[in-house]
Write a structure and sequence with these properties.
This protein has about 325 residues and is mainly alpha-helical. It has one domain (about 35-325): ABC transporter involved in vitamin B12 uptake, BtuC (Orthogonal Bundle). It is built from 13 helices and two strands; from the N terminus they run H-H-H-H-H-H-E-E-H-H-H-H-H-H-H. It has a two-stranded antiparallel sheet with strand order 1-2. A hairpin with a 5-residue loop joins strand 1 and strand 2. Helix 4 packs across helix 11 (about 270-285) and helix 7 crosses helix 8. The longest helix is centred in the N-terminal third of the chain and has 31 residues, at about 40-70. The protein is globular.
Length: about 325
């Protein structure tokens, strides 16, 4: 972070001012009935937290994508299909067994195995051939989309929230002060808070694994100089298969998360593939914290835009990407 501040003082000031304004909007109590230019505080806070939790979902999808695309240089445009497949399988398992947590384990294993097959059959034979990888994975995504449409149709499926996470929780954030001095606090779905906390923990663990463990050292060394690492006796192909499996498994469990507080339906694969691409471009390829920052920015742009500028909400997402590409092409935290 200190290096980013030293290299980008202007961006650091802009981010600091934005964070300070955001903190003021969240903490400052607004009298009931006071209309501001951006709307009531309750609406703003709900849009803010919806954007952050949507960013947590985008991070779960994009973190696997940044491992596969940013670190391993494998162009996997079937990543969105893995997300949707994980959501469908999670729905079927949760409906059959009633176990929401168990669905995460089952889906991670199944989708990770599919990732191993993709790495061993497809990407191992096309190392360094970006165009072939792009075309082949587009074909795979079309086939998977048709198979899922044949099996589950065009209906939307909602994965039921477990009992211990159902209902709202009261957050220590004042949304208004009523005439008699009564404080009104914000309530928010407990499942979204749990998903946000889990996403933060996962991001920290992934960063530690890549930067503080021997396996992470091997992954980074294999990306920088695969031939030299292979010559030292390390079976780099096995390491990359492990990384690909983990990234695919993350996409699968993100499908369960998306199906829990939104829904899973045909067409969601392309939406989340596009979101992953935008997040990786904004945050920086190969950077876990960059993926987290990009995911939060895109999530906030979508949700705040849908509340305050619904006509231009989609434009805001691509405007952020265009500004990053114009002024910092490697991404906000990319190298």
């Amino acid at each position: 972070m200190s290096r980013f501040i030293q290299r980008n003082p202007v961006w650091s000031v802009i981010i600091a001012v934005a964070v300070a304004a955001l903190v003021w909007l969240v903490v400052a109590p607004w009298p009931e009935g006071l209309e501001a230019a951006i709307g009531r505080k309750r609406i703003f806070l709900n849009a803010l937290f919806n954007g952050i939790t949507l960013g947590a979902l985008y991070f779960l999808v994009a973190s696997g994508f940044t491992l596969i695309f940013g670190l391993m240089k494998n162009v996997n445009l079937a990543h969105g299909s893995l997300y949707l497949l994980g959501g469908y399988i999670g729905y079927e398992f949760a409906e059959a067994t009633g176990s929401w947590l168990g669905a995460f384990v089952v889906v991670f294993i199944i989708v990770a195995l599919i990732g191993i097959v993709l790495q061993y059959v497809v990407f191992r034979r096309m190392e360094g051939e970006d165009l072939r990888q792009t075309l082949v994975t587009i074909g795979i995504s079309i086939v998977l989309a048709d198979l899922m449409l044949w099996r589950w149709g065009s209906h939307s499926y909602q994965i039921l929230t477990p009992d211990f996470l159902s209902g709202p929780v009261t957050l220590p954030l004042i949304t208004a002060i009523r005439g008699e001095g009564e404080l009104v606090y914000l309530t928010f779905p407990a499942v979204r808070i749990a998903i946000l906390v889990a996403s933060i923990a996962l991001g920290v663990l992934m960063w530690l694994a890549l930067n503080r463990t021997r396996v992470g050292m091997l992954i980074r060394a294999g990306v920088d100089d695969r031939e030299m690492l292979a010559a030292s006796g390390v079976r780099i192909q096995y390491v990359f298969i492990l990384v690909f499996a983990f990234g695919a498994g993350l996409a699968g469990i993100a499908g369960i998360v998306g199906g829990t507080f939104q829904s899973v339906s045909a067409g969601e694969d392309m939406r989340f593939l596009l979101a992953s691409l935008v997040v990786v471009i904004v945050g920086g390829m190969g950077s876990i914290f960059g993926a987290a920052l990009g995911a939060v920015l895109i999530g906030l742009a979508e949700q705040l835009g849908s509340v305050y500028a619904p006509t231009y909400s989609v434009v805001l997402t691509f405007l952020i990407m265009a500004l990053v590409l114009a002024f910092r092409p490697q991404g906000l935290l990319g190298r």
